[in-house]
Write a structure and sequence with these properties.
The protein is built from 5 helices and 3 strands. The longest helix is centred in the first third of the chain and has 12 residues. It is α+β, with helices and mostly antiparallel strands. The radius of gyration is 17 Å and the shape is globular. A hairpin with a 2-residue loop joins strand 1 and strand 2. A 3-stranded antiparallel beta sheet has the order 1-2-3.
């Protein structure tokens, strides 16, 4: 398991890659407009990120999408994979969505059948 903030930190070493994968071709102004719109929608209008600090620079906030799905890694052994991507990333240099999804957790399905797997 990789912690999502550690993946982001590792990718931030290359500003061009980070900007393309997580900010896409968005401008700071368009990101601010995006978050101002989101702040007006339920349930996000009550989210602590927006209500606890009015000084958050919205152009630096990255909306992450977390996705989970099964994958077959080895013969007849399924693995459940959690991955993350930025909602802004789809407008970057890469066109294939699978190239800007970052797996951060893989759990063999036979472990998921147990109540104490996690």
């Amino acid at each position: 398991m990789l912690l999502p903030h550690e993946v982001l930190d590792a990718l931030s070493d290359d500003p061009m890659a980070f900007n393309s994968l997580f900010l896409g071709s968005t401008t700071p102004e368009s990101r601010i407009r995006f978050w101002q719109h989101i702040k007006g929608l339920a349930p996000w209008s009550q989210h602590p990120v927006f209500n606890e600090n009015d000084n958050i620079p919205l152009d630096y906030v990255i909306p992450l999408c977390i996705h989970g799905d099964g994958a077959q890694m080895f013969r007849e052994q399924d693995v459940f994979v959690f991955s993350m991507s930025s909602l802004f990333g789809s407008t970057g240099l890469l066109e294939d969505v699978l190239l800007f999804k970052f797996p951060f957790c893989m759990v063999p399905e036979f472990h998921m059948r147990s109540d104490n797997a996690f």
